[in-house]
Amino acid sequence: MIPVVAGSPAFVSEPEARLATGIIAVDGVPRPGFEDAYRQHFELRRRVYVDQTGQLDPADLSDDGTDRDDDDARSVTFAVLENAPEGVRIVGVARTIIKGADGVDRPLPVEEFCPELFAEHPLALGSVEVSRVIARHERVAMQELVQWHLFALMSAYFSSHEVGRTFAVIEPWLERHLAGMLSISRIGEPRYIEHYLDYNLPVEFDLPGAEERITERNATILGQLAAADGALEYFGRISRAQREAAIAAAAEASATPADGTARPNLLAEPLSDAV
Question: N or C end of the chain: which has fewer CB within 10 A?
């Protein structure tokens, strides 16, 4: 379920960090060094929304079999990466669709799914829809932390960029969960949305209120993320066992030349009598 990004340099500068969070793409273009992570995040979306939850029809997938659509060309894509024993894993992703970011004044999905709410007052350019929010981990507590980091990332982005009103279309059960973590209000009743093959409801985010909720949990994180401006920020530490295994692997690698022959262990050789 959780993709591993082979050869990712995400933790080269912070090899003992547990999580890294940041922006991996803007308007459909991956940031340098995140090309494979961006490709893998589409695969994670397919695994979750098609294979696991059945919220998307396989017929809606792109030609490469991943969940990629036209809204990615007007989105900022966020990710939470984990420094796991098997490699760098993508454990959280989200995108914020920004109306007009692709140079075209076309409706956000929430406007298309709930047209009666915006019939008289279409949303202005710069309005935002939070979409494709995924947090996956074997440990429930870690999965909740990953989701919280995603919303902290997005909140920091909103506070440092001029964005308009911000919305999401969510499953009814998720409303109470998000209300406890952020500050949202329901703006319409649940309705069956064919694109998602399920009942969903529209909500609007209170951005200042969400910032307050996040700051209550961590007083400095929004400032830290805003200063990074999408570059990776690191949190937590890997376990001692993983750290020791990584050190052993690095030592073994350094003892083996590129041709694969083992270097002699000089400490195991008898000392020469020569002076």
Answer: C
How far is 39 from 68, CA to CA, in rounded Å?
10
* Domain count within the chain: 1
Q: What letter would DSSP give residue 159?
A: H
Q: What token pair was written down for 239?
A: 């376990």
| Helical axes 221-228 vs 207-217, angle rounded to 10° | 110
pTM: 0.88
Beta strand residue intervals within 99-229, DSSP E: 128-135, 166-170, 184-186, 191-193, 198-205
> Is residue 112 one of the residues assigned to a domain?
yes
Question: Which residues constitute the domain of residue 99?
Answer: 4-160+223-240
Tens of pLDDT, residues 115-129? 999 999 999 999 999
Residues in the chain: 275
Kindly state whether residue 229 falls inside one of the protein's structural domains. Answer: yes
Q: How many whole angstroms separate alpha carbon 258 and alpha carbon 246?
A: 19
Domain contains 187: no
* Residue 275 reports pLDDT greater than 90: no
Tokens matching residue 155 = 């909140």
- pLDDT per residue as tens digits for the range 41-88: 999 999 999 999 998 889 888 888 889 999 999 999 999 999 999 999
CA distances for 258 relative to 9, 25, 250, 251, 263, angstroms: 20, 34, 14, 14, 11
Burial (CB count <10 Å: 0-12, 13-18, 19+), residue 183: middle
Residue 69 lies in a domain: yes
Cα separation, 271 vs 105, whole angstroms: 78
The CATH number for 136's domain is 3.40.630
Question: Within 10 Å of residue 197's Cβ, how many Cβ atoms?
Answer: 15
